[in-house]
Each structure stands twice: as structure tokens, then as C-alpha cells.
Amino acid sequence: MIFKILSLVILFSLYLYGSEELFELKAINYSMENDTLMNTDFDYTHGVKISLLYYRGDTSNSIFNIPFTSHKDTNNFISFAYANHMYTPYDLCQTQLIKDDRPYAGYSYLEFALHQSSKTNLDSLTLEIGNIGPQSKINKLQDKIHKALNAKDANGWDNQLKNEIIIQLNYMHKWRLQYENFYGYNSILTPYAGFDLGNRSIRASGGGLYRIGHNIPSDFGYNTIKEGSFSSMPTNSKTVINDSSNYSAYLNFALGSSFVVRDIFLDGNSFKNSHSVDKKPLIGFVSTGVTLRYKSFALDLFHTYYTKDFKDRGKYKKYKGFSSFTLTYYFE
């Protein structure tokens, strides 16, 4: 099923690539998040995302403009992605339902996003369409990963959330604040605010990313798979490759929080009875990382730590986390 979805995305992307008067391919990236380097194997334990970004020169078609925003004097992009998430409880050996721990859950989906950017602002509107439950085939993916890593099997996937089609709409606004050189280094702060609305989650989020280093590109910086949208969105189509004769190297520091009304991975299925836990309405995270970039290639390496998102009766440590990398290729 996953390969069929990927094939459709690739074929559609090739079609768009051949229609350069409408869409121009600008970037492709691959992201993976996993908690192996954190010496854990539970909670949000794995995620993968493959994304393609297109520049949309013609803004006359209003269906591709983000509602309630001005698309004048902006650079307009559209992105397509396939992604999946994996969630497991602490005890992977247990075959029975663990009532006081989070449900097993797999989520695979397609993501379509509209982006309107300028030198100082970015609006992104994202639509997710996917499924949660056995049809996502995430349990089979974990089996393959564990065999490759020579890790223990997860025995409780029979207790995972039930099948449910997901329709999710997410919006995010970012501000780009560039400061004067700090001892010869670039320095950029990128605050953000947004919301999620759908049967996957209902939440409001806010936070920021601070970058300092050499030759920081004209973009809005890295974001995790769970944050959605396209990572490192450019300010405009002509700065997708920033000073390609030189390299970029810089440090990243991010933090954020969310007020959560609903989270299907903790609250359980929307329309069927399923396992659930008592979620915490306010959660936060902090990330540190480094970005290396040379000509058309970029590599983001991050560690992300986040607070407890449900009442676990002291089973977990105070903070949890995962490591991630994103490899991006930019087209001129």
C-alpha cells in the first residue's frame, strides 16, 4: 500500500515537473526521526517523510491561494509529501493491553500544502489525508526496523488503535527576523504560531527557532515531521540556492508549546471504542541541532526533547525525545 501511494505521488510530481509554466520543481527532501540514539524505544518512536516542493508562478487561480491571507507580493509554493508516524508503549514485550500506557498506533498519510512567503513572513496551509490503524501497515514497518537493528520485537500490536480515515487541516505562520552580524556570524530568529484542526488533533501551537552561524540561507528554517509543512521553506524562488559558491554551517535552537484539545494517539479513535489515556493539555519541546549546506545539498541533524503528554503514573522519565536528520536537494 505504501509503495502504491509513493508511486502515485511520484507520477503526479513528474507530471507537474513537465508543466513548468504552472509548477517548477525547487526542492526534494527526505526526513527520518527515531529515538534509537536516545536509548529508548517507546512513545513517538519513528517517523519518515518524503517531500517535494514546487514554485507556483501563476497566482491567478484562487483555489491555490490561502484563504484570508494576501497573496500579493508573495512567492507562492505548493508541496506534496508522504509521511508516517509510529507510537508504542514502554513495555514492548507485553502482548496484553497495557491500560495505563499509551496505545500502539500507526499513521500513514499524504500531505498537500500551500505556502506564501516573503522576506519576513510565511503562511502555510496543510491538508493531511491518511489512515490510522492496521491499514497503515506501520506494525510491519517496525518489525523490519527492529530486525535491521537487531532489537526486540514489539508484541502488542494486536491492541493498536482501530482503522480510521484521517482528514486534517493545519495552518502555521512564521516571522523571519534577521539581525546584524554577531561577531561575524549571521543570526536569525523565526517565531511561529499555528493551529491543527481535524480528527487527528485539535491544538494551538507557538514557539520559535534561533539560528546562528555562517551564510544562513534565505529560508524559514527546519521543522519536525510532526509540525508538518515543508522544512526550510525559502523566502522566494530565486533564493532556494543561497550563494551556491559557498557553504553554510550554523547552529539551531528551537522551543515551543501546544495547548491540546484532542490527540487521537492519546484519546483513541474518534468514532469507535478504543484504548485511551489521560492526556495533558499543555506540552512543550526544545530542540538543538546543526545544519550543513554545500551548493545544492543540505543536511539537518537535530535532537528534540519533549515533556510528558499523558499521565503515565511515573513510568516514564520527565522528558522524552528523538533524533532526526533531513537531507535536501535544491534545484536551480
Structure in a nutshell:
The chain has three helices and 13 strands, in the order αβββββαβββββαβββ. The chain has helices at residues 2-17, 138-149, 264-267; strands at 23-34, 43-56, 75-88, 105-117, 121-132, 164-175, 177-182, 185-198, 201-214, 247-263, 282-294, 297-307, 319-330.
Provide an overview of this structure.
With 332 residues, this protein is mainly beta. The chain has a single domain (2-330), classed as Beta Barrel (Lipocalin). 10% of the residues lie in helices and 49% in strands. It is built from three helices and 13 strands; from the N terminus they run αβββββαβββββαβββ. The longest helix is centred in the N-terminal third of the chain and has 16 residues, at 2-17.
Give keywords.
332 residues, mainly beta, Lipocalin, twelve-stranded antiparallel barrel, 3 helices, 13 strands, 10% helix, globular
- Give the overall shape: globular
Number of separate strands: 13
Strand order of the largest sheet: 1-2-3-4-5-6-8-9-10-11-12-13
Structural class designation: mainly beta
Q: How many structural domains?
A: 1
Tell me the fraction of residues in β-strands, as a range.
Answer: over 45%
The helix/strand order is HEEEEEHEEEEEHEEE
Reported for the largest beta sheet, the result is:
12 strands, antiparallel, barrel
Indicate the CATH topology.
Lipocalin
Task: Give the mean pLDDT.
Answer: 87
- Regarding CATH, which class? Mainly Beta
How far apart the termini lie comes to: 33 Å
Number of helices: 3
Oligomer: single chain
Quick one: CATH superfamily?
Outer membrane protein
Helix amount: under 10%
